[in-house]
Design goal:
Number of domains: 1
Structural class: mainly alpha
Number of helices: 7
CATH topology: Rossmann fold
CATH architecture: 3-Layer(aba) Sandwich
Distance between the termini: 15 Å
Length: 146
């Protein structure tokens, strides 16, 4: 299964216009979705930001987060822990992105997520975030959905 960025992962837990496509992508996979340990914290923020913006109904953020957290706890999702290996890979990724021509600006958390994906040897990225998709292509990942 590919590495899931939080922009795509959230679609498995709250109803969005294109959620069905991502649910189907996860269902068809032969392995578990892989996420970074840092995605746990990002998911909470994303869900509350969506609730604040009224993109999801009131009180949905905590319910969706609980379901997500249960999936993490029950190993439905494969979790890549943050460690020295991820930190070293992060340094490499930042250099690649900022030495590219043209430069592909990368945010710190995105770099850490990519570092988790590379540490776990994930060849594919599932994301709807344009910054993540651009950096993923530069880094040689196959970006889904295509």
């Amino acid at each position: 299964m590919p590495f899931w960025d939080t922009s795509a992962l959230v679609k498995l837990y709250v109803r969005e216009r294109d959620s069905d496509d991502f649910v189907e992508l996860a269902r068809k996979s032969e392995t578990r979705a892989t996420i970074s340990q840092l995605s746990i914290h990002e998911m909470r923020c994303v869900l509350h930001r969506k609730e604040f913006a009224r993109a999801i109904p009131p009180k949905t953020a905590e319910l969706a987060y609980r379901e997500f957290h249960d999936d993490v706890k029950d190993a439905v999702l494969k979790l890549i822990p943050y460690g020295r290996d991820v930190a070293l890979e992060f340094d490499r990724i930042v250099r690649v992105c900022y030495r590219a021509s043209p430069v592909v600006p990368i945010r710190a958390l995105d770099g850490l997520l990519f570092a988790s994906a590379f540490t776990a040897r994930m060849p594919d990225l599932v994301s709807t975030d344009l910054h993540m998709c651009d950096a993923g292509l530069l880094l040689g990942l196959r970006v889904l959905p295509s």
